[in-house]
Specification:
By secondary structure, the protein is of the alpha+beta class. The chain contains 12 helices and 12 strands. The strands form 3 sheets. It has a 5-stranded antiparallel β-sheet with strand order 1-5-4-3-2. A 5-stranded mixed β-sheet has the order 7-9-10-12-11. Strands 6-8 form a two-stranded antiparallel ribbon.
Length: 446
């Protein structure tokens, strides 16, 4: 039905159809409820009913009249007899239009006086015109009809006496039908927007693990084109990441081969000082290659996730350092993770704290939102707030000399960030209670 319409056109068409359906249902229900031949239960004192009651009272004697009054009086309509015409005080409004309409029905019984009144506070300035007789039920009325033998039959409405459908006012059913039409429209809009939800989930998974997640082509034409292009983009990005990983792996392997040869030749250099400097340079080249390769692998999807005890991983890491404080909850801290990547994550953080903070850090683990919150606090100078986001990017170093002895490679925190995000967690930098740097990591529990 909507095959050639775009997304906006489909949503607009759904809303228009819902409005037309609601209008048609309301119009049909209004027609049925107003129809004088509709076989619907009603307590509305229509003028022809008043005429019938007046005719019955005039044909009855005094004893029978009391029986008639008891039979026709209900909770919503009270009928009584009055020997005199009801007085109409100045503050009571007399409804000439209603008197005219009622007279059309009871006039068949002969000319008689009709007095219709209502509280002006209840009806305001509303005027009853021709063709609106059904609105007699919207406010309390008092109608007195003169009898041939003298006296008046007084009709008083009490409470709601509107026409009902299956025991409920028509407005209730209009609301029900409107709600059903609205629910149907919402379902149709949800169905049209469902491809966008699938596409959003696919992009989120791809950003997390780097694996292409194809989405089935469906929906409006522009949505189908968007889904197709996103599928292609994911495949191209995954191919580029894989190619870069393979390239860097091959380059690092070849470079390490040459570095190994240079180390062997450095051993032949005479003079211990020059040889030591050459070996130190070669070691730093090897570390730089390893860090760059780790960044690349951190963006690759090839991770082996297993059930890991986070507390045990941290205890293994801190064994290689002296003075590190580790506080963990009792019991196993289970999660799905790559244990090798986790060890590298916390090793990098402890190394940074020791190197730049000047002392062993304090590590605290706590349960938080169905996961684990890990804080690493050092006592160093900390990092200014303006640079905290920058230091998480690859090769950014606060120390500008580019010396590895003073500034490192600029990859430690970048590697930590990639490992955390690859496990579906978050990492943030803040100020520790001691004034140094606080690294806050949130990881999901397994």
């Amino acid at each position: 039905m909507f095959g050639r319409l775009g997304f906006v056109g489909r949503v607009s068409a759904i809303l228009m159809l819902a409005l037309v359906a609601l209008w048609a249902l309301g119009a049909g229900l209004s027609y049925v409820s107003r129809s004088p031949i509709a076989p619907l239960p009603s307590a509305l004192p229509l003028p022809h009913q008043m005429a019938a009651i007046v005719d019955l009272l005039e044909k009855s004697d005094e004893v029978q009249r009391q029986t008639v009054l008891a039979a026709v009086s209900t909770d919503t309509l009270y009928v009584s007899l009055s020997p005199n015409a009801p007085e109409v005080p100045a503050d009571i409004r007399r409804l000439r239009g209603i008197e005219w309409l009622i007279n059309r029905y009871v006039g068949a019984l002969g000319s008689r006086e009709i007095i219709a009144t209502a509280d002006p506070d209840a009806i305001g300035d509303w005027q009853l015109g021709r063709g609106k007789l059904w609105r007699l039920a919207q406010f309390p009325l008092r109608v007195a009809v003169g009898l041939k033998g003298g006296g008046y039959a007084v009709f008083e409405t009490r409470g709601e006496i509107a026409r009902r459908l299956f025991g409920m006012p028509p407005g209730f059913w209009v609301g029900v039908l409107g709600s059903l039409v609205g629910i149907a429209a919402l379902f149709a809009v949800w169905r049209e927007a469902r491809p966008l939800k699938a596409l959003s989930g696919s992009v989120a998974r791809f950003a997390r693990d780097g694996q292409p997640n194809r989405v089935a082509l469906r929906g409006a034409p522009e949505l189908r084109r968007l889904i197709e292009e996103v599928n292609r983009m994911q495949e191209r990005i995954a191919t580029l990441i894989k190619g870069r990983t393979v390239l860097l792996g091959a380059v690092s392997h070849d470079l390490k081969t040459y570095i190994t040869r240079l180390k062997l030749r450095a051993e032949m250099i005479e003079g211990g000082d020059q040889r030591a400097r050459a070996e130190r340079d070669l070691d730093e080249m090897t570390a730089l290659i390893d860090d760059a390769l780790a960044v690349t692998r951190g963006m690759a999807p090839e991770r082996q996730l297993n059930d890991v005890d986070l507390g045990e991983v941290l205890r293994i890491v801190v064994q290689d350092y002296s003075g590190v404080s580790l506080t963990t909850p009792a019991g196993a801290l289970m999660m799905r993770a790559d244990p090798v990547a986790l060890r590298r994550l916390f090793t990098n953080l402890v190394d940074n704290a020791v190197r730049y903070g000047g002392s062993a850090p304090d590590i605290t683990v706590s349960a938080r939102h169905e996961g684990w919150r890990i804080t690493v606090d050092d006592k160093g100078p900390g990092i200014p707030e303006a640079e905290r986001a920058l230091v998480l990017e690859p090769f950014y170093r606060r120390e500008t000399s580019r010396s590895r002895e003073t500034g490192g490679s600029g990859l430690g925190l970048a590697i930590a960030k990639q490992i955390v995000e690859a496990h579906g967690g978050t990492i943030a930098l803040d100020q520790s209670p001691a004034g140094g740097l606080r690294v806050v990591i949130n990881l999901p529990a397994g």
